[in-house]
Amino acid sequence: MSVAESRLRLAPMTGVLENGSAGPGDDANAILQAAACGIMTIDLGGRVLAANRAFRALLAGTEVIVGCAPPYPFVARDDMGTLEDTLHRAFEQDGPAEAIEISLVRGDGQHVSVEMSVNRRDGSDGNATGWVLTAIDIHARKQFERRLARANRALYMLSGCNAAAARTGDETSFLREVCRIAVEIGGYCLAWIGFAEHDRGKSVRPVAHHGLDDGYVDLTGISWADNARGRGPTGTAIRNGEPSVARFIADDPRFQPWRGEAIRRGYASSAAVPLLDGGRAIGALNLYSTEPDAFDEVEISLLQDVGASTAHGIGALRARAARDSAQSILRKTLADREATILDRTREMRDANACLQTELRERARVEEALRRRLDGERLVGGISSRFVSASSESAEEEINRALGSVGEYAGADASGIGLLSADLSTVIRTYRWYAGNEIGPDLCGLSTEEFGWALDNLRRGEPLIMTTSVQAVPQPLWEVCQTRGWHSLVALPLFDGPDLLGVLAFGCRRAGRAWDADEIAVLRLTGELFGNALVRGRTERALAENRARLEESERDLRHFSRRLLGVREEEKRSLSAVLHHEVGSMAIGLTAQLHFAEEAIRRNDLRGGLEAMEEGKYVLERVVRRLKNLAVDLRPPDLDILGLTAALKLLVSQAMERTPTRIDCVIRVNDAEVGPEESIVVFRIAQEALNNIARHAEAKRVVIRLTAGSDGLTLRIRDNGKGFDADTLAASATAHMGLRAMREMASSVQGACEIVASPGHRNCSDIEVVAEAGSGFEAIEFAKSRAADVYLLDVAMPLLNGIETAIRLRREDPDAKIVMLSIHDSEGIVTRAIESGINGYVLKESAMRDIIQAVREVYRGKFFLSPGVSRFVVQGFLAKRQAPPKARNRGTLTVREREVLQLIAEGFTSKGIAQRLDVSINTVHVHKNNIRVKLGLHKQADLVRYAVREGIAKA
Fold it and tell me: Please, what is the end-to-end C-alpha distance for the chain in angstroms?
């Protein structure tokens, strides 16, 4: 289904959802109300129009207030910006925006994760009227992902504990290592192990701990008796021999003796796993997490394996200590026996024979045990290295591990051959040779020569070829011997159910045998190699996808900023024309009509006619200016008469506004120019003439439009001041006109070349380093980076220029500030100077004074437009003559001025509280203080005062 078809189908249903009217839309309304996913509609102002039952059910008690405007109380504060950005993107593009994941706030304060899709909603005329938001509950999936991550950490923790049991030599070091692994690999904030004592109080003695302790373990005083200090997780686990979990420490009554100390250290949940020796608990492994309810059934099951592994390690270490003690006793016994044998020679021969047999058997057993311990240590070491290895060092770790396993196996070479998906070729190899001696290529055997062996490897069966094992086809055995291998072991490497490759070990000496323990160790290492290879491949793919995604996001953000900047620039330009020109003429027209009315009431018909004539003249100017403005927005001649007539009209209007002489030469046939090319040529000419009128101070302009085999060519030349075209066009923060002309040309597969003389630039020493859309954005910029001069407008949204200047002074006491305003009233000028600014420029003289003001302020001087200089002198004299106590009477505080500005901008008390991050009661107190100080009690009077005093924009 196309985007247009889906919009046509959705529009009637959303209309029913909004209006709830009876008629043909009832079925659509029922469908929407019965939909499993939540649906909400909002208008272009962001106000909520309606929401179906599924959307309200997602909030579970939070009321969706119809007419509510952003920020929405049912959307998490951190996600509000993401939602607003997605609404903007959906508005700009013809189709749905990408799905986003945000959190909704339920009535009980809990957050629920949803996947939200945003579609632009168009009216019957094709214009956008709002958005349709669709929310799908993904909270359960998110919880499952977190449980899976915790289970993976527990698996890594189990592997680390197994490795620690193999490499540590004493019980204390082993227990400390287990606690360290639980914190650093398992991700718990604290882990400690306690042994159950069989004293009178059945106390639990801490023997090892790691993590965020701060003396907590020493303060526990835990018992495993059935009393108040023995019913916690630790005592319960030891007493019952089963894991015990405190899912919410703050509410668990069993945790009452230790709750205060635990909460002070940030513990939210804990688990105790018994250490069982022959079915009897000898102690417990205790784990603490900063997250509530952090232990699910899968994780507890894995932690039981960790506890079993820890108990097994303790038993093994104690057995080793007992064996060492027995060996010491045995040596003493042998010494005594040798002394006896000296006296009994005949008995000595028989005893010596028996002793030699016993020693050989013991040596064999010790060698087997040593090989087994070496194998366990090898597997643990490789597992630890692979777990801690980064994606950059994974290749080096694989090569190093190949050498370690080869040395353990006593092989002359070891190698890994990675196979293609169809198992037809070896696509990559890893090799190791004993003593760096390059021998026959172990991975050089082709998959055709392996033949029958690949079927066995695919089933997970190892391939063993020695002189004593004849379970392989004779041709394959002959190939191996020809290449120098008289003993070889090949093990499969898997990626899930698929055969990934082959791990092989070879010896060039005959008679090499491989026992079952060695094969078991090699198979474990094969699993580790397979996991490492799969992990490396996955991480590389993720890194590549992440890099591509980041690049796409940067491109999208850059495009959005540029598009928003162009639109805002056009709005500001249109607003300035309406405000300064049309508005001023409208005020003049009103005055003339008032004069005419007064004259008629006085029976002064002549005076009334004169005032009417003046009003008629002003009205004609208003009509002419509005007509010119309409032509600037979309010239009717361009659609009716064609490109040639529109360009000539544009030139004539430009010559009326400026004394510049403009010559226009057009050599094209309008019928051969398409509508897209026509509007692009017109807009480029319009933008160029505007820039020349504003900045160039040119006396003559020549416009030439010609058509050739390579398309249209528009040339515009002037004799005004030059500038550095490349620098200005490449700027990211200013000169949107130059970039707009180039982008308009590129939209019709054209190019815009700007040639200027860099020798006549008049402001090359000034660079715009950043722009801010509000006072808050300017303050955030000042926190991270200081500018030489800040240029502020008195009337800015959310936080006006005067309040922004006061806050900038707090962030940077040495900040240099220039204020730009249309107001020349004494009150606004005086308050602006009192805020600590360094310059005040009227907008009516901005083109003449702004560059000079920036330079003067940067040099440490003070600058005022001539029209406001008198207020400085008058204010100074007034302060010298005014009584000190009466000077500050009725002055609003900084916070009160912020509240007054937000009132004037239409914010409710709740909206003001959210914007300033205060309570609603505090906002009401500020409102009452403002009314008392100003003597104004109506909302309209407060708004008029804020606009008149420059606190808010009209």
Answer: 47
Judge contact between 791 and 808, C-beta under 8 A: no
Asked if 416 and 502 count as a contact pair (C-beta separation under 8 A), the reply is yes
Burial class (CB in 10 A: 0-12, 13-18, 19+), 560: middle
User: What residues form DSSP beta bridges with 426?
Assistant: 419
Do the Cβ atoms of 466 and 381 come closer than 8 Å? no
| Cis amide linkage into residue 71, ω under 30° from 0 | yes
Q: 608 and 596 in contact (C-beta within 8 Å)? A: yes
Helix (H, G, I), strand (E, B) or coil at 401: helix
Q: Around Cβ 886, how many Cβ atoms within 10 Å?
A: 8
Q: Token pair 């101070």 is at which residue?
A: 697
User: Nearest CA to 468 among 436, 519, 514?
Assistant: 514
Q: Side-chain half-sphere of 698: how many Cα atoms within 13 Å? A: 24
Any idea what DSSP says for residue 230?
G
| 295 contact partners, CB below 8 Å, separation of at least 6 | 150, 245, 247, 269, 271, 287, 289, 303
What count of other Cβ atoms lies within 10 Å of the Cβ of residue 436? 7
Q: What is the pLDDT of residues 297-340, one digit of tens each?
A: 777 877 888 888 888 888 878 888 788 888 888 888 888 877 77
Nearest to 576 by CA among 822, 811, 347: 822
Interaxial angle between packed helices 3-19 and 26-34, expressed in degrees from 0 to 180 and rounded to the nearest 10: 90
Phi, psi of 862 (to 5 degrees): -110, 140
In the chain, which stretches have pLDDT less than 50? 1-24, 436-440, 442-444, 732-734, 759-764, 880-889
Please check whether residue 733 is in contact with residue 562, taking contact to mean a CB–CB distance below 8 angstroms. no
Q: What is the pTM of this model?
A: 0.31
Query: Max Cα separation, the chain?
Result: 160
As a whole number of angstroms, the distance between CA 533 and CA 528 comes to 9
Beta strands in 657-810 (DSSP E): 661-667, 700-708, 711-718, 790-793
Kindly report the number of other CB atoms within 10 A of residue 245's CB atom: 22
| Residue 663 to residue 648: CA distance in whole angstroms | 10
Which pLDDT tens digit goes with each residue over 455-487? 777 777 777 777 665 555 555 666 677 767 777
- pLDDT tens-digit map of 100-140: 888 888 777 777 888 888 888 888 887 888 888 888 877 77
The strand pair at 817-821 and 839-842 is best described as parallel
